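Note to self: keep these together.
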Amino acid sequence: MAWRLAKSLEKLRTQVNAAYQKRSKVSDGTIGDAAHQRVPSDHNPNAAGVVTALDLTHDPKNGFDAHKLADVLITNRHPNLEYVISNSRIAGAWTGWKWQKYTGSNPHSQHIHISVGDGKDDGKATGNYDSSANWTLIKPVASPQGGNDM
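Structure:
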């Protein structure tokens, strides 16, 4: 089956790669392997052939702390964000965007998982995944006037 990555996740990956040019990509991922294909997963293409999940490798040695990025993503949510899994934690709208313990088989300690779209981690997201809006990658810094600098 022909597939493509959700445009919002392409945007995120491009931004991360530009900001962290030396980061490892060993655990990066989009489309699921055979194990993913046997179970519901956003790493599987939906009915429109769109993969709505992206994994990004945690590589603090080269300046990319993916778990800190996960905190930023749930605080400064992109309009397409569905949920994030990071370091045995999961956050989404159903958690009030607060971290809860993640008990899945993969603790996501070597990478973070970002899903977009309207769905339930089942590879069946039905839209809301192709925004071209930029993602916030760093925590905004409060300016002396009380605003936020980017």
